[in-house]
Design a protein that fits this description.
By secondary structure, this protein is an alpha/beta fold. The chain has helices at 13-18, 29-41, 56-67, 81-90, 102-110, 122-131, 145-153, 172-177, 192-197, 200-220, and strands spanning 20-24, 46-50, 72-76, 94-97, 115-119, 135-138, 161-163, 183-185. Helix 3 (56-67) links the parallel strand 2 and strand 3 (72-76).
């Protein structure tokens, strides 16, 4: 297994640098690997292979083999403790769950890699923080948009939020300006139609747009 590259001082340092985390949902393991290849070719190096993808662990293992340290690789839609262990053994450097369930969160934290736990309401954020997660996946972020994230940052100024859902190349700057540590992008970056058609060039083109938007946004931040 590749050793995680996270900083001890800031366990989300590599994620902040990557800025855009692509949420990969593919109909097959080969398609999942092809999507990752297309994303990296377009400059998006943060890749989250979801467990809604068949043989997700095999996809993680193959992407790690193909791209090594050039990709920040995680596992998403983690719903069971065994998936957390399996993903890290396959080479995942971070774990993401769509919600916060104490037993699952504990199992994810036990793996030793950074954990992003899903939350939307203030109470859910408090629960995630009390359980010791490294960051909060604000999901579905499309419900409130950047203004909602900005409001949450009031009572939770030190919580790293990673909004997912409703993130596009056109609003990456808005999310970062609202205080996001990074952003997760699914359908806007990896459209289901492009994946179904095997149109990897389209995925690469979208990755180029997202990576350019992230560079501009980061460049405008103090």
């Amino acid at each position: 297994m590749i050793a995680p590259t996270w900083s001890d001082a800031d366990p989300l340092a590599a994620l902040r640098i990557a800025t855009v985390i692509a949420v990969v949902r593919a109909p097959s393991a080969p398609a999942g690997v092809a999507v990752a290849d297309a994303l990296v070719a377009g400059g998006v190096t943060g890749v989250e292979i979801t467990y809604s993808t068949p043989d997700a662990a095999a996809v993680i293992r193959e992407v790690r083999h193909r791209h090594g340290a050039a990709v920040l690789l995680g596992a998403g839609t983690v719903l069971e403790p065994r998936q957390a262990r399996e993903a890290v053994e396959a080479g995942a450097e971070f774990l993401v769950s769509p919600g916060t369930v104490p037993a699952l969160t504990g199992a994810m934290l036990d793996t030793g890699v950074p954990v992003l736990s899903g939350a939307l309401t203030p109470s859910e954020v408090m629960t995630a923080v009390q359980l010791g997660v490294h960051g909060v996946k604000l999901f579905p972020a499309s419900v409130g948009g950047p203004a909602y994230l900005r409001a949450l940052r009031g009572p939770f100024p030190s919580v790293p939020f990673i909004p997912t859902g409703g993130v596009s190349a056109d609003n990456v700057d808005d999310w970062l300006a609202a205080g996001a540590a990074a952003v997760g992008a699914g359908g806007e970056l990896v459209p289901a139609t492009a994946v179904a058609d095997g149109d990897w060039a389209a995925v690469t083109a979208l990755a180029e747009r997202f990576s350019a938007a992230a560079r501009r946004a980061r460049g405008s931040r103090p």
